[in-house]
């Protein structure tokens, strides 16, 4: 499943980062796995809350 992007005027609640890259949320997981996996075939995905400062 894909997450909808924030609507105009809404703030992002979280940030998705893969190896220092913030991919579009519409990017297929299969494509990310094929192109961004480590040599051990793991795809390390970090989902963190956006800082609220």
From TrEMBL:
Annotated protein name in UniProt: Autophagy protein 5
Function field: Involved in autophagic vesicle formation.
The source's superkingdom equals: Eukaryota
Organism, scientific name: Tetraodon nigroviridis
Query: Topology versus the membrane, per the UniProt entry?
Result: Peripheral membrane protein
Q: How does it assemble?
A: Conjugated with ATG12.
Which UniProt keyword terms apply here?
Autophagy, Isopeptide bond, Membrane, Ubl conjugation
Q: Where in the cell is it found?
A: Preautophagosomal structure membrane
The GO cellular component terms are: Atg12-Atg5-Atg16 complex; autophagosome; mitochondria-associated endoplasmic reticulum membrane contact site; phagophore; phagophore assembly site membrane
Write out the GO MF terms. Answer: Atg8-family ligase activity
What Pfam families does the annotation carry? ATG5_UblB
Identify its protein family: Belongs to the ATG5 family.
Domain Autophagy protein ATG5 UblB, first and last residues per copy: 7-47
GO BP field: autophagy of mitochondrion; cellular response to nitrogen starvation; piecemeal microautophagy of the nucleus
């Amino acid at each position: 499943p894909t997450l909808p992007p924030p609507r105009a005027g809404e703030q992002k609640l979280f940030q998705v980062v893969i190896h220092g890259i913030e991919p579009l949320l519409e990017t297929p997981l299969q494509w990310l796995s094929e192109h961004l996996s480590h040599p051990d075939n793991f795809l390390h995905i970090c989902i963190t809350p956006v800082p609220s400062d």
